Amino acid sequence: KEVFRVLKDEWGAGFQSFISEKVVAVAGDVSSEDLGIVDLHLKEEILKEADLVLNFAAITKFDERYDVTLGTNTSGALHVLNFSKKCAKIKLLVHVSTAYVCGEAPGILMEKPLNLGKAARGRSNVVEVWNGENELVANRLHQLHSQNLTDKEITSAMQNLGLERAHYYGWPNTYTFTKAMAEMVMVESKGDLPLVIIRPTMVTSTLKDPFPGWLEGVRTVDGVLVSYAKGRLKCLAHKPEVVLNLIPADIVVNAIIGAMGMEFAEQHLDLIYHLSSSMKNPIKVSDIHDFMFTFFTKHPWRDRHGKEVQVAKLTNFSSMACFHVYMAIRFQLPLKV
């Protein structure tokens, strides 16, 4: 991976031996009990030696299949928790969540555990909700398979189910709902295990470490940047004054390490940390627009033929009504013709 470039340059020929002394990759699956570790001797060694567990595993697509997202984001988090509780030397479990577990709540959001409250919909606690959702998923999958539907049809049905359940409980999408439920289930089930929950906002490329601009994959706001650079994005419906809550990846990592250090030093247990930028360094949508135009004018994207892609300022629509009129005239009418 490109992220290791600085270490490779520093260690040269000794890089592989350096990494092998520090890092051991273990095949597994958080959606399975005991993290899907097959080697019993290895599992026993981990349970005997591990004193700190960090859970980064998550599916971040807003509309992924409900069974898949629930299995990783919620059940997976609980599997990590249960595995951590078995570790003989465990001192701390760090769970990386998202600031958007708040759903669409207005105002200042406090660093406090989530309360299922009215969202329980008649159930007594979040574990009951989680068990009920697992049962619902199993029944719906059985029903879909009995109808001899194609894989594509089953996937579409399970995506719709996820959005339906999220809206039913008061969250805007499957991702934020399953991450919120994970937090609540973990707090409910942790017992005496020290737990820290990290809630970053939209994670973007690195600011400084190991070098500026590193990013793997295209997520959140990155899709807009790439589409604009390639000349595919010509217009956008947005309010220029809206603040985008962006946070560089290396600041997220540094903050997690800092939070871990605080927990070990001060023993402030069961804390939640928000990692965001909007209060101290607000970046508006209009700023992003200006940054994109300036950067890709000076450093244009090259297409597969090596030709530079020329970009122009985006056409901005301040209302969805204007946007729909534009789409109808610019695209729907010509397509019908």
TrEMBL record:
- What are the record keywords, sorted? Lipid biosynthesis, Lipid metabolism, NADP, Oxidoreductase
Question: Which enzyme class?
Answer: oxidoreductase
List, in alphabetical order, the GO biological process terms annotated in this UniProt record: long-chain fatty-acyl-CoA metabolic process; suberin biosynthetic process
Where does the Thioester reductase (TE) domain start and stop, copy by copy?
A: 18-256
Quote the EC number.
Answer: 1.2.1.84
Q: Which GO terms describe its molecular function?
A: alcohol-forming long-chain fatty acyl-CoA reductase activity; alcohol-forming very long-chain fatty acyl-CoA reductase activity
Q: Which reaction does it catalyse?
A: a long-chain fatty acyl-CoA + 2 NADPH + 2 H(+) = a long-chain primary fatty alcohol + 2 NADP(+) + CoA
- This protein's superkingdom? Eukaryota
Q: What does this protein do?
A: Catalyzes the reduction of fatty acyl-CoA to fatty alcohols.
The text of the family note is: Belongs to the fatty acyl-CoA reductase family.
This chain belongs to the protein called: Fatty acyl-CoA reductase
Naturally occurring in which organism (per UniProt): Linum tenue
